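Q: I'm building a small set of examples for a reading group on sequence design. Run inverse folding on the following structure and report the sequence directly after it, with nothing in between.
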């Protein structure tokens, strides 16, 4: 491998195997649930805007969780925090899976699950450098990206088939079971560690301001954060999958195929990037790759057919995942361990929130134009924003130290 560390060496770390397997099954379950919710709402309402709203509820509350709760990943032992969050999310999804649940209550439950996601993510990403060390971390991130996107691809495509065979409530029940399985793995196979931040008296608001300053006061970190968030514009087609499929006369299986396109591209992109690009050169590719991730989505303005659209989404997913993977890696070792959990959690919460808001806005635009046009406009905006960000990152990376 270009990084000098093989996948086999990383898998020899027992704790990484446990974290990898736990995340893999919960991610697959989440994608099943998103397909179920998208199909359920669009079938009942026929509105792209309401479908976008429901999809957004699986993301948008993450902003509040990222701002106010991710500090828990530094103040409490990370293994115990991950376990508790998984158990709680599993219980909430069990309630979502109850048939005839009132729609407002369903939205509230889904929103709480989304609120807890950044707590899980920040604790996990902050713990990973302790488990792998710096030498194996980049390869571990590549493995995570390939595996997670494979699970998403299977979850999206399988979700469409399961819904066609059964109903959305069965799919939601499977999602709940994956959370409980993840909790068991984390609790039994990870070693206990003390909290990274010993200042237990620190106020959450104060630690949030410090984490925000770490992300934006330094121009190199600021460029990384904004490129990470920009990828939400590229992924807008995921939240628009149901109306996009309907524009071509497709049903739940077509929705699953559109949603599977992004993970398929992500697997290919992460694998090739980790294999072919030397670790010393990866950061310099961030800017060009951010532009290349947005351009295929902008081509939707030309109204390509369904097959062509899926191929474009595969390409966009490949470049976009590489950008997310490398920005996260670069940020992790530029952050002090005592603030790493919250800072990484806030940056990822911004990405998650933007991923939810983008299809909501695109859904409103789609009701006035068409799904292909709405997705294409977001791709064009992403391209125009990516160009100055790429230039800014190239300048900042020349003078920004590799670690803080």
């Amino acid at each position: 491998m270009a990084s000098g560390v093989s996948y086999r060496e990383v898998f020899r770390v027992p704790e990484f195997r446990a974290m990898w397997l736990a995340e893999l099954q919960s991610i697959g379950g989440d994608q099943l649930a998103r397909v179920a919710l998208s199909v359920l709402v669009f079938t009942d309402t026929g509105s792209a805007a309401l479908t976008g709203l429901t999809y957004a509820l699986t993301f948008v509350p993450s902003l509040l969780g990222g701002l106010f709760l991710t500090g828990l990943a530094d103040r409490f032992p990370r293994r115990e925090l991950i376990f508790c969050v998984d158990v709680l999310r599993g219980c909430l999804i069990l309630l979502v899976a109850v048939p005839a649940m009132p729609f407002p209550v369903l939205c509230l439950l889904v929103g709480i699950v989304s609120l807890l996601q950044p707590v899980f993510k920040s604790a996990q990403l902050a713990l990973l450098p302790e488990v792998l060390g710096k030498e194996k971390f980049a390869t571990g991130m590549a493995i995570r990206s390939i595996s997670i996107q494979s699970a998403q691809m299977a979850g999206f495509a399988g979700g469409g088939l399961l819904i066609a065979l059964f109903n959305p409530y069965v799919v939601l029940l499977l999602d709940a079971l994956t959370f409980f399985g993840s909790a068991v793995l984390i609790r039994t196979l990870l070693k206990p560690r003390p909290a990274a931040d010993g200042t237990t008296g620190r106020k959450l608001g104060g630690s949030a301001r410090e984490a925000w300053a770490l992300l934006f006061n330094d121009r190199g970190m600021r460029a990384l954060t904004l490129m990470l968030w920009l990828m939400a514009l590229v992924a807008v087609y995921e939240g628009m999958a149901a109306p996009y499929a309907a524009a071509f006369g497709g049903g739940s299986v077509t929705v699953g195929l559109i949603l599977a396109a992004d993970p398929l591209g992500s697997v290919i992109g992460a694998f090739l990037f980790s294999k072919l690009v030397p670790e010393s050169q990866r950061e310099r590719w961030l800017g060009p790759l951010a532009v290349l991730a947005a351009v295929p989505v902008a081509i939707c303005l030309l109204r390509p057919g369904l097959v062509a659209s899926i191929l474009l989404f595969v390409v966009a997913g490949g470049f976009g995942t590489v950008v997310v993977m490398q920005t996260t890696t670069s940020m992790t070792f530029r952050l002090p361990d005592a603030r790493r959990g919250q800072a990484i959690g806030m940056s990822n919460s911004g990405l998650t929130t933007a991923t939810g808001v983008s299809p909501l806005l695109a859904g409103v635009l789609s009701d006035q134009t068409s799904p292909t046009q709405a997705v294409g406009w977001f791709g064009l905006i992403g391209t125009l924003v990516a160009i100055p960000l790429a230039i800014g990152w190239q300048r900042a990376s020349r003078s920004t130290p590799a670690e803080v």
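The domain at 7-190+203-399 is CATH 1.20.1250.20 (Growth Hormone; Chain: A;).
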